């Protein structure tokens, strides 16, 4: 029962939570009864089997538990009644386009979690927790912070939503420029978590949500940029053999060519009609990797040039790290190592295992084996997932 039940919970958690928030207007209540419904399923499904419509079963169970709580808690019932009156007075929430139907309540929950009243990091953390169904430690790893810190951040964000009475709705056109980038970053964080932890369900959920956003907001160029980036990376999933394999090690015949073609077409849309955005540039870099017949024939000069553009748009140590790795392929390992040494004092990279892994690779290529071994062990200590640790152990063993 473990695999099918886990798959159902992963698929239904965000949908169930979003529907309950819309129904009762309270995120804490929705989270609590969602968890109780899942606990009830864990109790009944092993003996009775997974129902034909597990989402409907969970929804019925969760709504009953919510009603029971409201009957027992008069204070909570009164507060929710006030919220309902305010919502009725405000009238129907305008859609992004007149008459447009939202195909999924989770979109509204995404924009609620990305409300500008919340701190930027809190928005993304709450979105990962509520929409992706990630545990607090998994969200913490995405932010490179301790789990205790992330737990406090998520609690603070939910408290802010409750006290500020942030509405559960999709924003109007005037709000989108401020709200949409945070939603996109949250979706991409879900995708990268799925990639790092070998959880294709998370990656595919991020892609699905981005497709919905693309249909709702066809004029926003960064949405096809993000979708292209995820498709171009996810197209390589079968060549990873259930783990993490470097691009140089992957069998490119196993890459999903239709997915790559779709991603390349979306790159054109993302880079047409104005200055490029960061997701569009990253997608263009991914497209160059996917277009190459083999690793040796990759267009490294163009990739370095695109990283120069990306660094100008979104300067960060992580972008500089990736650029250094590309420079090493264009100009040689010493040139890349020199750039990495310039980044050694960046606080964000101290706990970022790809930095230590990149140094280890370049030191190995330069024949400095003892230093490379030490750097690989540093990276192994910092790696957050078993897939990442397996790759590093393999590299260390080869050394």
Automatic annotation (TrEMBL):
Q: Write out the entry's keywords from A to Z.
A: Sigma factor, Transcription, Transcription regulation
Source species, domain of life:
Bacteria
What's an example of a GO molecular-function annotation for this chain? sigma factor activity
- RNA polymerase sigma-70 region domain location: 11-74
Q: Which Gene Ontology BP terms does the record give?
A: DNA-templated transcription initiation
Annotated Gene3D superfamilies: 1.10.1740.10, Winged helix-like DNA-binding domain superfamily/Winged helix DNA-binding domain
Matching entries from InterPro entries are given as: DUF6596, RNA_pol_sigma70_r2, RNA_pol_sigma70_r4_t2, RNA_pol_sigma_r2, RNA_pol_sigma_r3/r4-like, WH-like_DNA-bd_sf
One Pfam family recorded for the sequence: Sigma70_r4_2
Q: Where does the DUF6596 domain lie?
A: 179-270
> Which stretches make up the RNA polymerase sigma factor 70 region 4 type domain?
113-161
Q: Which family does it belong to?
A: Belongs to the sigma-70 factor family. ECF subfamily.
Protein name as annotated: RNA polymerase sigma factor
Native source species: Actinoplanes aureus
């Amino acid at each position: 029962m473990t695999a099918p039940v886990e798959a159902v919970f992963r698929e239904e958690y965000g949908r169930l939570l979003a529907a309950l928030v819309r129904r009762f207007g309270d995120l804490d209540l929705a989270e609590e009864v969602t968890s109780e419904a899942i606990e009830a399923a864990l109790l009944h499904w092993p003996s009775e089997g997974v129902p034909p419509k597990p989402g409907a079963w969970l929804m019925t169970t969760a709504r009953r538990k919510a009603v029971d709580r409201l009957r027992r808690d008069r204070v909570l019932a009164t507060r929710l009644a006030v919220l309902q009156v305010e919502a009725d007075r405000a009238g129907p929430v305008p859609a992004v386009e007149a008459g447009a139907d939202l195909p999924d309540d989770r979109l509204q929950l995404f924009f609620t979690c990305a409300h500008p009243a919340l701190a930027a990091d809190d928005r993304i953390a709450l979105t990962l927790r509520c929409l992706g169904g990630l545990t607090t430690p998994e969200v913490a790893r995405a932010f490179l912070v301790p789990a205790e810190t992330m737990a406090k951040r998520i609690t603070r964000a939910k408290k802010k939503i409750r006290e500020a009475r942030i509405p559960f709705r999709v924003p109007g056109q005037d709000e989108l420029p401020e709200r949409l980038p945070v939603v996109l970053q949250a979706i991409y964080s879900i995708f990268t978590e799925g990639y790092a932890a070998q959880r294709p369900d998370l990656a595919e959920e991020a892609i699905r949500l981005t497709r919905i956003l693309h249909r709702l907001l066809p004029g926003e160029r960064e949405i096809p940029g993000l979708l292209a980036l995820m498709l171009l990376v996810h197209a390589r999933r079968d060549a990873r053999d259930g783990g993490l394999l470097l691009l140089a090690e992957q069998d490119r015949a196993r890459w999903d060519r239709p997915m790559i073609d779709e991603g390349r077409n979306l790159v054109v849309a993302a880079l047409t009609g104005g200055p490029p955005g960061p997701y569009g540039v990253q997608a263009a870099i991914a497209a160059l990797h996917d277009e190459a017949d083999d690793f040796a024939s990759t267009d490294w000069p163009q990739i370095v040039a695109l990283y120069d553009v990306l660094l100008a748009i979104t300067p960060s140590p992580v972008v500089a790290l990736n650029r250094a790795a590309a420079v090493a392929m264009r100009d040689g390992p010493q040139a890349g190592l020199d750039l990495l040494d310039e980044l050694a004092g960046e606080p964000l990279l101290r706990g970022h295992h790809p930095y230590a892994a990149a140094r280890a690779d370049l030191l190995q290529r330069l024949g400095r084996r003892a230093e490379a071994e030490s750097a690989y062990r540093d990276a192994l200590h910092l790696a957050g997932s078993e897939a990442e640790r397996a790759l590093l152990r393999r590299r260390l063993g080869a050394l």
